[in-house]
Amino acid sequence: MCFSHLELCLYSEKLQNLVELCYPPFGDELMDFGILGSCNGVLCLYSNGDYHSLIYMWNRSSNKYTTLPKPSHNPRYFGFGVNHKSGHLDDFKVVTIFANANAEVYSLRMNSWKAIADGFLPSIELTCRNFDHPVFLNEFVHWCARVSCYLDSKCPWLIVSFDFANEVFQKTMLPDILSNDDGAKFVNVVSGHLCVFAASDNDFSAYELWVMMEYGVVDSWTKMCTIEKTEKFWWPLGFPTTGSIVARGHCKHDENTLLVYNLDRKKFKCHLPHLPIQVQAFAASVIAHVPQSAIVGTT
């Protein structure tokens, strides 16, 4: 699924079919917005206002949505997911991290925010870019991050996650060869496993793909493949099918093109030039609607 401030498009799993969708029912309220994530068929969107961000949960299938109450401060980072351990498919949550390292979590079932007692992790800096979303897996939302360092230029890489069930932050270490390498890192999910794309020397044209084969076990990190240096600069977005990587990058003088890299053929195919602002993997809803008690607008 692709978003910009002008259009909303949906692509099939194999990126062969393009469907233009109706704009969100709250679209007139949004001047500049982005995607926080997608979970159980519900999209979480935010708009940047002059003072506070507006956050929405939108079930694209039913076209119903809810507007979240505003957090106490304007967030610097967001994460979106669901607490399956509660026994409710619709126990959606949003975590926000502020510039002062405080943090809050919103619960849709409670329709309220609450402060995270311990705040964000000290001496950690998230590395999100405007095309790099945190990913949700196993009740956790994950970001790539670096240890803050002021005197030493070698700032180790790691993964930071937020546990939506217990509402705490935690750290997951990367293999030393990745942790101490300067190249950019992108966290993702492949076949139900947490993974990391590691760029070579920040040139964004060659990557290693590392997969955590057993969730939470640092020793289970395994290098699955190396994507040799290509003629294109690209940034990984996800895995639409087995054996391929969907990416954003340069193609035919357009630096915002949707690309698909075939791991067997080791070749790119250009699918969509002039890519909209953001891209998000999306699956149809497995629940009927965002809870009626939270609905503030419908079609």
UniProtKB/TrEMBL annotation:
Residues 35-230 form the F-box associated beta-propeller type domain. InterPro entries: F-box-assoc_dom_typ1, F-box-assoc_interact_dom, Gal_Oxase/kelch_b-propeller, SCF_F-box_component. It holds the Pfam family FBA_1. SUPFAM superfamilies: Galactose oxidase, central domain. This is F-box associated beta-propeller type 1 domain-containing protein.
